[in-house]
Amino acid sequence: MRSKDRLAELRHLANGAAAGVYHDTVELQLKEPPAHHADIEHTFNEVERIRGWIHQLDNNTQLMRRLHTDPTFHTNKQLQEQLESAVTASNAAGLKVCGALRQLEASASAGAARNDAAARIARLQYAATRHLYADALARHHAALDTVRHDQLHLLHQQIKLTNLTISDEECQSLLDSNNISLFVDNVKAETAEARRLLRDVEARHAELARVEAALTDVRDLFAQLAHLVAAQQDHVDSVEYYALQASDHVGAGGGHLLKGTVSRTKARKKKMGLVVCLVVGVAVVLLVLIVT
Asked: Which tens digits make up the pLDDT trace of 196-208?
């Protein structure tokens, strides 16, 4: 490629600048980047976005391993929920990476006809990104297999402890349904039943305590009543004695009243006889006097 010799022009411009006179004005114009530069930049942006999702997948894999190595993982519902959330997030990131890789593959396949820098960079970035995603996905699947293997081993141990007979299909269905706490659930159920029985016994004990307290109050009341009766016994005996004497006097008074009534009748008869006798005597005397 031939180039124009601009040495004389540059010397002329330098001499004019040294004299303090600007004869020409040099304008610098920024040219727009070629089209393949825009394709390269778009490819790098896509690859950076995909690698961000791959990095998120690696972070979720590390989180799963950290949660699974916790000694209380199989009994801590919060840790299990965090692991499930990490698996869900990893699945979403994997779907995004797959879709973006398909688009990047389509872009690289479209540029396969030409052999320019943009096409070569697109093919190279697609291959490298796909390799990174395959490694991250393999690590994620290895972590999932480890968790599933430990859950399956724990389920078999619980089945042995509970003396259950479960086939491999039923065991797989239990593992798929995330129900691997047979022995723990039995212990929890028995504990809940024991707590319920304890609450019932405590309620009955409280009721019996209230009944016992009421009976104690009644006993104290009867004791106070017996003490009062004992204290008033002399007065009761005196009242009873005078009541008996009053009964006797009432009986004797009835006899005396009957005798008085009979005596009064006899006295009245005697009085009437005397009056009759006196009247007859007076009449005889008057008659004698009249006759004589």
From this structure: 888 888 888 888 9
